[in-house]
Amino acid sequence: MATNTNSPIACKEFENYLKKLFRISNEDIKMLIKDFHSEMKKGLSGYESSLKMIPAFVDRPKGNEKGKFIALDLGGTNFRVLEVELDGKGNSSVLAVSKFVITKNAMQGSADQLFDFIAESIKSFMLENSISCDEKIELAFTFSFPVEQTNIAAGTLIVWTKGFTAKGVVGEDVVIILNEALKRKGISNVRVAALANDTVGTLVAKSYTDTSCDIGVILGTGTNACYPEKMSNITKWRGISKKENMIINMEWGNFDKLPITTYDKDIDKASPNIGRQRLEKLVSGMYLGEILRLVVNDLMKRDLIFKDLNTKLFCSSYDFLTEYMSLIEGDDSENLGKIEVFLIEHGIANINMQSKILLKKICNLISTRSARISAAAISAIVMWMDPELKKKHTVGIDGTLFEKYPNYKSVMEEVFVELFNKNAKKISLEPAKDGSGIGAAIIAAVAASSEK
To answer: Known catalytic residues?
Structure first.
């Protein structure tokens, strides 16, 4: 392969090489679906699998759930408390919402310090919004940390992430700890009715308003999916349940039966979870910009792009964001002026048209691979549930990658046409907002109605 020349021929050679490298063919997709089904079966049976297939202890709502609920959305140093009302007719509304910032002392102190802070925040939210301290209230707890869930309202923290180190929480049931903190703060009328995962919340929130929604997907900084599974297929299940179905949190980001490039290998080697989360590293918004950065660095070393320029934009790991790719690929102007303005703002001037076109094409190769893998994984779930595609399947999707990246949705839909022809219309990709808030409240409503 030609190197150390900025000729159009050399650029075209490398572009063709990249096309082959990032291509996900129809045959690749069919193999992915086959492997996906194999991993699903193993995960549901309790055997070692790259798909964990975690029972969520809840089924989809019927749409008639009704009442007011408090939702606690804890996923990092900033957290939200919401009051959500369900009207029993498939409609939900957020009556009030407050955001709180957890102090460093609470994050890194003891379990009591952290959860007392959270309980105090819930108390101030209730006072501020005139929520009765006498009436019984169900609380839905979205806890976005690695948890081994053992019941609809029970889950043990496996490990802290995102800078949290509060002692006395790992290995303990976070619902019990929160309930005890609420009692200490004199909030005796609030009870944690459900522990929720944001992916499951996405499915529940969308299926509350659309009964055909049977897949929930996150396509943002990270990625995951869930769907309702027949209890008879969850052969690792040892409990007793009257439900016919239970939502399964797949943790599909860890699926590892995928072809990878040298750039993907470099990202994996530099990551804190080497050998894990392969699908996430090829698909999610956290990694796409870094893949682009590594490819451009390779081109610069070969003197095929940004000739004679020393730019910091592509120097530091994870400094090139996926939103930059979105801006570049979304530039449809004749002279790619938006790309030029972006590059100038980041210290790269006098860019020739060839470099701008090449940069846009690389963004497209990386994002297209991401969208095709996402669509293939969704297709695998649809085919698992409905092999002959007899029914309509709405896929509720939350995340900025799906919502904001140019043509991401249309590329996914092309895969459905390749696989299912006319039946592709039976799969509908729909935005599903706030599964960690509204979805969690609906899960609490489902749990409350089950108890009754």
So the answer is: 80, 144, 198
